[in-house]
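Sharing a chain and its predicted structure for anyone who wants a worked example. Both blocks are below, sequence first, tokens second.
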Amino acid sequence: MSEAAATASPIIEVRGLTKVYHVGDVEVPALRGVDLEVAKGEFVAIVGASGSGKSTLFHILGGLTPPTAGTVKIARKELAAMSNAERTELRKTTVGFVFQKYNLLPTLTAEDNIKIVRYIGGKGSGGFTPEFEEVLGLLGIKDRMKHKPRALSGGQQQRVAIARAIVNGPAILLADEPTGNLDSQNSSAVLKLMKDLNERTGQTILMITHDPEAAGYASRQVHMRDGRIV
């Protein structure tokens, strides 16, 4: 993490976060009072085994599910104070998502898979900016833009998914087990690219992973167990 990132106000700020699911009459706590800060420009890995609460935290940070209690601020905006439409706008403009499954539309080329998100974000469907063209070069997929997902390897599809997630210039990239469907070679390549993206462009990245080796690519690791940060 750069010196600027270390001194900046948090771009993600979580206080006393709890989440309780109800299964019939039984309460199942997923988060038990989580406090977390992520500075602008950090690459943070949230590490934990299945059931530790990390995926629940991911979904709350992305505005995909509400917490039971506690506060979440994304880019200084309180999620609980937002309407559904405002949270949708947040996901269009401020937060980009990368999932374990690439979720590319199979009938579209890599280029159109990226451009459709740009269009949804209100930025038109024209050509990419020179800055984004540099990002495509960094991701190593500039020569694969006219290919459909079936003609791409798993690693290439995940790189397209990363490009799609950041095409609208989100302040935060949330990645949920981004290498879970990849072999070791492609996993290493994608993680190196994410680290390079963070270091070269200052992209804030929060990655959820169960893999200590994957977490090693981040500049900071936060470990979770039984719904708590430990």
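Comments welcome. Strands lie at 10-23, 26-39, 43-47, 69-74, 77-78, 95-98, 172-176, 204-209, 220-225, 228-229.
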